[in-house]
Amino acid sequence: MNLITLILTLVLGGEPLLVLNPSEWNMGRIEQNGGVVTTEVVVENRSGREAEIAFVSTCACLWITPAKLQLDSGESGRIRLAFDPIDEPGSVQKDIIIRTNLEQLPKALYLVYGEVATESPQTEALADTGTAIQPEDSLEARPPQLSVDFYASPGCRSCQRLLRRTIPGIAQRSGLALQVKEHNILDPKEYAAYQDILRQAGQEERAYPALVVGGTILQGETAIAQQLKAVLQKEPLTGVSQPATARDATARLSLIPILAAGLLDGVNPCAFTTLVFLISALAVAGRSRIQVLQIGLFFSVAVFGTYLLIGLGFFQAVRVASAFPIVAAVIRWILITVLLVFAALSLYDYFQLRSGRTDRVLLQLPQAIKRRLHRDIKSRTRAAALMASSLVLGFLVSLFELACTGQVYFPTLVYLHRVRRNAGSLSYLLAYNFAFILPLLIVFALSYWGISSQKLGQWVQRSMKPVKLLLAGLFLGLALLTALT
Fold first, then answer.
1. Which domains does the chain have, with CATH numbers?
2. What is the per-residue pLDDT for 15?
3. Which of 237, 424, 427, 436 is in the most buried spot, having the most CB atoms within 10 Å?
């Protein structure tokens, strides 16, 4: 039983709705010039109802015959898979997208993998060379630019060769420069966005890679190679693919809640009071203003690094879990629920603070963690090894405060995963953590310029109510954005 079948069995309960035998195609070691290799896969319908099943290859090197099956309950059918290794040297991993009319199994993946042996190790390197997407001429000499969207599987070498050689060549002959935005069809969100584009165009999913040029969708390498020139000649020279524009606008706007979350998390009362206690402890320990500034810088660097590593680990875990549509849907609704609960609790805390009942605030650090933090701060601020102690203190405070700051951090990371799943998500994660430590840097700077911990403490007390209200608004906003994306 492969991983997809296992997860479907655990989530749906009982037996899987479809059984493919073999559950994956291990081609083993094959020769690059040895010709096409084939196999047969038996598909059994155990769903209890008639199933319409479509198979879509993610690479022109892999064919499925027939591309569709219609099976009654309990009925089995066969498909024939054929793989041409001529352009695929080295380790190979391909996916076949399986789409059905079954509500519990709208989509699944079938894995094909193996090793293609070649006598010429330079073949792949030569195949990867080609003209750039955009020429590096002067601005005046550059041809008109057009934005297009390219949908493919990340393991498809022939798709990359098409992207790097064929498409730029056609664009150059057409007198255009293409700005190509790549999309991973194995990413559930990217795949769903592409399905929306197909539905709007009245087309069915047929082949990959696919190229979206304005309102035209070209599916498969042959269609792209043969029809792209004619499509480009029809497009306005300053045109931009509409699907890409909408997604780019969403991606740009997603930075605003990320930065807002980081700043609000940085002034979160349950974390900010610890910072004020640290400033007070430094004063009691007799640290000079320049020492306070130095400690603050090293402390902030440690906090930034700790939260960044925690965020990267959590983000990766969410990314792996969300690779399966059912799990991704569950995570989405859990996130919406958690955000709404935190919004309600923040509003509750706001009204408690407004009534002067600070002891009834719910979203705060437990007393046991507060006492442990205060003990560590007192001991570390008196340590002789000033800088090393500051780094250790920043690390420890980050871990202990995660029980409080994680209420904002983790839901924001899940939201970030939904709106930025590519490499750009790292820059957003860096932006969040910089916004998070910005209040730390400001407080240490104010302390250097003579602002006492008493005044900072008074400011914290005055700001607790509006911050709680802003946090409630943040949680509600993230819940709404998550529901809409």
1. 3-121 (2.60.40.10), 130-240 (3.40.30.10), 251-484 (no CATH)
2. 65
3. 436
